[in-house]
């Protein structure tokens, strides 16, 4: 739920800042890009904080090799996407990359839910959240 809270807080905070006169945040798309970036910066941190990282490594399906490396690579990609979506010139490519990554990583969420990995979000809720996150990334660039 923390990523959803970060997404909503980022969108609303950026929108308020835009209405208060911050020109770079004036409009819904800059606010959406800010919310998506904040959400991914939050999730990126889990890839590198040892206590949280262990849970992500456990979520990687057992059939995939190098779970630790996969978690590191996806963390780096999430960080790059979060930064990239904030820059108008790179935002469409960053959003596309983040959307593709969310789609490709969804089977790991399914696997974790089915294996009842500690910290895994129940599959129904995870599916709804994933759709919201994908929609937010797509809307952030039009």
From TrEMBL:
Keyword Transcription: no
Keyword Transmembrane helix: yes
Spans through the membrane: 34-52, 64-87, 93-111, 123-141
Protein keywords: Membrane, Transmembrane, Transmembrane helix
Protein name according to UniProt: DoxX family membrane protein
Natural source organism: Rugosimonospora acidiphila
């Amino acid at each position: 739920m923390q990523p959803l809270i970060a997404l909503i807080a980022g969108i609303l905070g950026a929108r308020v800042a835009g209405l208060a006169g911050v020109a770079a945040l004036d409009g819904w798309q800059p606010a959406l890009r800010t919310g998506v970036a904040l959400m991914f910066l939050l999730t990126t941190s889990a890839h590198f904080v040892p206590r949280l990282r262990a849970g992500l490594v456990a979520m990687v399906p057992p059939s995939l090799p190098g779970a630790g490396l996969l978690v590191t690579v996806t963390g780096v990609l999430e960080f790059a996407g979060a930064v990239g979506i904030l820059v108008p010139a790179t935002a469409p490519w960053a959003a596309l990359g983040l959307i593709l990554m969310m789609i490709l990583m969804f089977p790991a969420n399914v696997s974790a839910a089915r294996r009842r990995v500690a910290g895994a979000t129940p599959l129904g809720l995870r599916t709804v959240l994933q759709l919201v996150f994908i929609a937010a990334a797509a809307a952030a660039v039009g």
